[in-house]
Design brief:
140 residues; mainly alpha; 7 helices; elongated
Amino acid sequence: MHRRTFLTIVAISASSIGVVTLLIPGPFLEQVKAALPSETANVMARTVGILLLTIGVLDFMVRDHEDSPTLRAIFIANLFLQIGIIPIDPLAYFSGVYTTLGAFIPNTLLHLALAGGFAYYLTRMSRQRNSSHDRAKSSS
């Protein structure tokens, strides 16, 4: 899969889930996560929704960019996000917050796959810096 395709899929996934979580947090929590919604949970779900929408927009905007230190930083941040999210749903399930395996297994597998994708493309990204970046760094 090409990096552009990978980032497009990531952007669409993050943005779609972000919009749903932002606009209808209660039904999302009940039907997808099998968790009880509350005012607090809905606020947190909306917060996660806008964050996912934002990262989706960012990934969509950089999908055609060439290798650069900035793109590398975006990929590292995405990788960190995926790795950070991986334990959250299993811990919620094992502590009784989520009541079904379906509330965490698909999401956990998705984040494992996305972490693998970001790691894969990071290892293939050129480490060469563009000349304007090198000049700016050497003059400081």
